[in-house]
């Protein structure tokens, strides 16, 4: 299954974007992602939201699970996930610039 745009996910698009952004700096397990996302976005994802979004991202080939470390399972961004994240961030960048220009 492929997805062309995270906005097609409706209410799941924001957590998915945050997860992709978190994994862009390297593989992480769930708790590390929750902490990282809270640090850069000011939003604390619940475990259900995180793992639901991770499952959808994994189904779409945007992230992949790595072998477990103790009881923790780390995830990493795939090359497709990196491309999707880049596309989404470029779109958001254009939207932000337009908004800032209109406020000026």
- What percent strand? 5-15%
Under the CATH scheme, which class?
Answer: Mainly Alpha
Q: Please count the beta strands (DSSP E, at least 2 residues each).
A: 2
The description of the largest β-sheet is: 2 strands, antiparallel
Structural class: mainly alpha
Assembly annotation: single chain
Number of helices: 4
**What is the H/E order?**
HHHEEH
Contiguous low-pLDDT stretches (5 residues minimum) are: none
User: What name does CATH use for the topology?
Assistant: Arc Repressor Mutant, subunit A
- Radius of gyration (Å): 14 Å
Mean of residue pLDDT?
90
Known CATH architecture: Orthogonal Bundle
Compute the number of structural domains.
Answer: 1
């Amino acid at each position: 299954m492929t997805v062309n745009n995270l906005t097609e996910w409706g209410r799941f698009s924001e957590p998915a974007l945050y997860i992709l952004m978190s994994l862009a700096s390297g593989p992480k397990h769930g708790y590390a992602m929750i902490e990282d996302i809270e640090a850069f976005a000011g939003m604390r994802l619940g475990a259900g939201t995180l793992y639901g979004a991770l499952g959808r991202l994994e189904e779409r080939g945007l992230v992949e699970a790595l072998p477990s470390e103790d009881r923790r399972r780390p995830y990493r961004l795939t090359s497709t996930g990196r491309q999707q994240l880049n596309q989404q961030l470029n779109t958001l960048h254009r939207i932000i610039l337009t908004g800032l220009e209109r406020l000026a």
